[in-house]
Amino acid sequence: MKKLSFKETIFVASMLFGMFFGAGNLIFPVSMGQMAGDHIWLAALGFLVTGVGLPLLGVAALGISRETGLLGLASRIGKNYGVFFTCALYLTIGPFFAIPRCASVSYTVGIERILEGQDQTLWLAVFSFLFFAIVLFFSLRPGEILTWIGKVLNPSFLVILGLLVVVALISPMGDPMTMAPEEGYESGALFTGFLEGYNTMDALAALAFGIVVIEVIRGLGVEQPGQIAKDTVKAGIFSSILMAVIYVLVTLVGGQSRGEFGISSNGGEGLALIADHYFGGAGMFILALMVTLACLKTAIGLITSCSETFSEMFPKSPGYRFWAVLFSVVSFLIANLGLNAIVAYSVPVLMFLYPLAIVLVLLTLFGSWFDNNRHVLRWTIAFTAVAALADFLRALPEGTQDALHTAPVTDMLGNVIPLSELGFGWIVPAAVGFVIGLIASRRRGA
């Protein structure tokens, strides 16, 4: 039975890392490190579960399922659900949040500091327009540019980041273990770190892009689903170790920076302050260039993937170019809301989608235990969705909650559903739905 050689495993591992790690993955560990204080290691552990572990499981689930993509996997619950979940996931990691975040992170980390004192609203508009003009140009002309940027940019970005981390560790600004944790990290740092990992969106990206890795492994001659999953996990271990090391070190550097700057409004600002502290103006320009190029690569890949997916899902639509232009325009408009606003509104959406994604992955990985019975799948997802919707409402910005008058509903559900106060109100309902599904499948003799 064919399995990947060591060289082939490293090749797939490199692809995995390049797909999952972008500049946006840096801002949340920095912010978490600043806020966690002396609970930094518990928070980092929780973050690694969702930021590293879940993406790996997502790719493995796709390998085991032998589906051609997310639509096929989600359609096991039902055709309509498959379309809904696929659209919701791609729009989240695409034009609604992840792609606009690429532009806003680039601006916040580099340009905002360089143009300090200027009209930031105007310059954000100018920068994001140029950013998405470049993204659209290459998205409409897919070719070697993505490969070139991936091979040249990622190593360059890691070298610059490595220098920053090494210098910061040699000359720390403070000791996180002497700092008091902020609210949310005082008694539940592990769970808060777990939820912070949602912000990487990598578990969602694994379901969207994991099929690319699976096809590469199949193209290398591996055919058995079990072996595909094993080779995926094996390759994933290499990329996961690198990602985990980067996450931990960046979290630590963020925690140390609190001794000098306090807590930044977002991780992008914190990263910029750290670079400026250690390297001055020159370091800021270098970091700004690297982060912008990294985000460009990610945005081009996301626009391309989302446009291809929607043109295939809706064959009667005007086609790929239409979706590429539309998603670029929408991303440009949302990017101009600013990084803080994008993060604030992405959190509730992720609180809704992540439980559905986690449960779908687990049901796929352990589907052989219940013969992938549709009753089990539907009952489990249905109960999970109700609880995840409650978490979504609870995570909305305070002003939005007041406008929608959601407090009575969320308070009632919070009192009824266990673990709701920790952001894990979906766990017990998912288990209940799974049991009901098993009973329903046996009664129907399915």
| Main beta-sheet strand count, sense and barrel state | none
Q: Class of the largest domain in CATH? A: Mainly Alpha
Mean pLDDT: 84
What is the total number of structural domains? 2
Number of strands: 0
CATH superfamily of the largest domain: Hydantoin permease
Rg, rounded, reads 22 Å
Label the CATH architecture of the largest domain.
Orthogonal Bundle
How far is the first residue's CA from the last residue's CA? 34 Å
- Helicity range of the residues? over 70%
List the helices and strands and how they pair.
Blueprint: H1 6-20, H2 24-36, H3 40-65, H4 70-74, H5 79-96, H6 98-114, H7 120-139, H8 144-170, H9 189-196, H10 202-219, H11 225-261, H12 267-313, H13 320-335, H14 339-365, H15 374-395, H16 398-404, H17 407-416, H18 427-443
Helix pairs in contact: 1-10, 1-11, 2-3, 2-11, 2-12, 3-9, 3-10, 3-11, 3-14, 5-12, 5-14, 6-7, 6-12, 6-13, 7-12, 7-13, 8-12, 11-12, 12-13, 14-15, 15-17, 15-18
Function: Component of the transport system for branched-chain amino acids.
Family: Belongs to the branched chain amino acid transporter family.
Organism: Mordavella massiliensis
Descriptive notes:
By secondary structure, the chain is mainly alpha-helical. It has 2 domains: 6-338, Orthogonal Bundle (Hydantoin permease), CATH 1.10.4160; 366-446, no CATH class. Helix content is 78%, strand content 0%. It has 18 helices and no strands. It has helices spanning 6-20, 24-36, 40-65, 70-74, 79-96, 98-114, 120-139, 144-170, 189-196, 202-219, 225-261, 267-313, 320-335, 339-365, 374-395, 398-404, 407-416, 427-443. α2 (24-36) crosses α12 and α6 packs across α13 (320-335). It is globular and about 70 Å long. Keywords: Amino-acid transport, Cell membrane, Membrane, Transmembrane, Transmembrane helix, Transport. It is a multi-pass membrane protein. Belongs to the branched chain amino acid transporter family. It comes from Mordavella massiliensis. It is found in: Cell membrane.
